[in-house]
Amino acid sequence: MTDIFDVIADGTRRDILQLLLRRSTEEDAGTSVSQIVSELGISQPTVSKHLKVLRDAELVSVREDGQRRFYSIEVDPLGAVDDWLVPFLVDAFGDSAPDIDFSLVPLPEGASHAAEVVGRAAASAKHVVTTALKRLGA
Predict the structure, then answer these.
(1) Is the separation of the CB atoms in 122 and 9 below 8 Å?
(2) Minimal CA–CA distance to 100: which of 111, 79, 86, 80?
(3) Phi, psi torsion values for 10, nearest 5 degrees
(4) pTM
(5) Is the model's pLDDT at 70 over the cut of 90?
(6) Backbone angles phi, psi at 137, to 5 degrees
(7) What is the pLDDT, as a whole number, of residue 132?
(8) What's the mean per-residue pLDDT of the chain?
């Protein structure tokens, strides 16, 4: 299975996930590729490429209706990210850790950029550790 951090490290894939999350509250039928292309302003081949990565990571599900495909977000795989982050929050805040209120509102630009930086750093750290372990024969 693809490392979830590698998948969400890409800003375009996070944009697609945020769009699918927003639209999941509006309709249960899923979102078509053409709707994603229109709303995000990126090409259809680019959207299809990123949707394949998201499907392989089981972050989206697809429903076929004739020639059209409708995508919906699957949040369960993001539990691995949550499991990884929670110890850092507990270490940082201890017993005074704030309650985290999950909101369907898109991240502000600054927070979105910070999330991208953290995602890239996590992917980079994974690569460094994996490479080091391979060199050690582990």
Answers:
(1) yes
(2) 86
(3) -85, 125
(4) 0.64
(5) yes
(6) 80, 20
(7) 78
(8) 81
